[in-house]
Design goal:
mainly alpha
């Protein structure tokens, strides 16, 4: 005799599921924004490309909070918000920024494409690593925010050698034990970190509005934010092991 199949949870009425579907559509809209950014990059209109990625970053920053508040997983258990989020994140954080790098003009096209491939392959492995987050929600290794790296390279325009070194260090950094803050999940320093997120976002959109050639004040703010987010892991308080 075969074991009886246990019935799954009863399907909720459509009006109860609708908020969850809307949140998933909101998350998926990040893919559409990345699509728009990609075509701006192909036309070498880098400021509009980063504007679309900036909007996608805002979507990614708030969709999880909305999903948890509305208990999306309970309303529509057959759709995985985690998988959807990873798909959109890889597109907006990795794939399109790698394409922007190719069209940025830092290097000859073959070299730029080679570096783009390094970004995509290394980030794909990082996204698949089940240890990419610590138990207290810090990112283990450089968190593959290539949209930020490429944005800084385009804004500050370092020499090709320095830009290449930055990409190499960041790619290797994905496999290191250094930790980086998750702005919305890490409890330590959270109020300051959220405030710095707002400051960084304003400075970033100012730089975009100035066609990626911001003044010295905006550059200083962007650098200060980079130092804060990059160095915060040094101050991390490790969780006490339960014994």
């Amino acid at each position: 005799m075969t074991d009886p199949v246990e019935p799954g949870p009863a399907r909720r009425p459509f009006l109860e599921r609708l908020p969850a579907y809307l949140v998933h559509f909101f998350t998926a809209s990040g893919g559409a924004l990345a699509f728009l950014a990609l075509f701006e990059a192909i036309d070498q209109r880098l400021a509009p490309a980063f504007a679309w990625l900036g909007i996608a970053l805002i979507v990614d920053g708030i969709d999880g909070t909305i999903a948890r508040a509305l208990h999306v997983r309970d309303r529509v258990p057959n759709l995985s918000g985690d998988v959807l989020d990873l798909v959109i994140d890889f597109t907006t954080y990795v794939f399109v920024p790698a394409a922007i790098l190719v069209f940025s003009g830092f290097w000859p096209r073959p070299l730029a494409m080679g570096l783009g491939i390094i970004i995509i392959v290394s980030a794909a492995l990082y996204f698949a690593d089940l240890r990419m987050k610590t138990p207290d929600n810090w990112f283990a290794g450089f968190p593959a925010v290539w949209n930020v790296i490429v944005f800084y390279l385009v804004v500050f325009k370092p020499s090709p050698w320095i830009a290449t070194a930055v990409i190499a260090i960041a790619a290797i950094g994905q496999a290191t034990p250094f930790v980086f803050v998750h702005p919305f999940r890490v409890a330590q320093f959270k109020p300051v970190t959220l405030a710095m997120c707002v400051v960084w976002s304003v400075a970033g959109f100012v730089a975009i509005a100035e066609n990626l050639e911001p003044g010295i004040v905006t550059q200083a703010v962007l650098l200060a934010c980079a130092v804060y987010f990059g160095g915060l892991g040094i101050l991390r308080k490790r969780p006490v092991a339960k014994g």
